[in-house]
Amino acid sequence: MSNILSKDIIKEWGLGTLPEAKQLEIVERMGRLLYQALLVRALDILSEKEQVEFDLLLDEDTTTPQDVLKFLESKIPTFDILLAEEKQKLKEDLLVPVA
Q: The organism sits in which domain of life (predicted)?
């Protein structure tokens, strides 16, 4: 995911006290989970024509996750809201409050 998103996750999830290598490991894992969640949600939002375009994009060997996110952002007007919702869901699912 993007560098800005990485900084958001580190700050919002209180990971700043961890060693940098551990921060990067966690951010990478969270990024993959968030990316997968966005792909699943996007399939429900995209039109049939857009889904065909999306499938073609995913089938290209040179397609990067950034390319996929740019495509989704261009096709889904509320992409920022979708991203925020999925990020919050992931946070709620993974961060268990300490009693």
A: Bacteria
